[in-house]
Amino acid sequence: MATSPASKSDLRRLLRAAAEIPPASLRAEASASMVRHCLGRPEWSACRGLLAFSPLPDEPDIRPLLQEALRAGKLLSLPRFSRESGAYVPVTVQDLARDLVTGRYGVLEPAPGCPETTINHLDLALIPGVGFSFAGGRLGRGGGYYDRLLERFSGIRCGVAFEWQLAVEIPMERHDVAMDSVLTPDGWRVVPPRGAVSPE
After folding, report:
1. Euclidean distance between the first and final Cα of the chain, in Å?
2. Is residue 197 part of a domain?
3. For the chain, how many structural domains are there in total?
4. Which of 25, 88, 129, 165 could bridge across to 79 with cysteines, CB 3.0–4.6 Å?
């Protein structure tokens, strides 16, 4: 587990360097473990509307969860960049092979024809990041896009992280949205109200 430098930029640099070390085989094994842990959680079973993400090569591969969400009849939503607002909005996806196109920053996102999702129809969000802490802190890529996307989201916010993305402490600012849980290869950890770690 990484220690926390004085600034977000220092911590982001440290965690990105750590992410370059693990081989693809370890990433695949860790991602599969995360998928298994998530599928076994009551939060997953109770979820009717899921906000997720299409993973970049350095992020956990949660694509099996997207497929399972659709198979189980859950409402699946992924972020799409809106040029009008300069922000990401949740958009409904029904077919992963047909509905996704390469968008901003090279991330797969819903095609223009896919409809926007009403945010209050979503009750679980799986959220990527550069780093997370078990106290609920999240370190993004620096644009604040997820903080704005999650401003009106009232469901469970779960960060998804490899072991090397974990930090003892994440510097948090007023606009930063905290996580309710963190999913790692070791399991799903709930963030208690006072920030103490509670392994589940």
Report:
1. 19
2. no
3. 1
4. 88
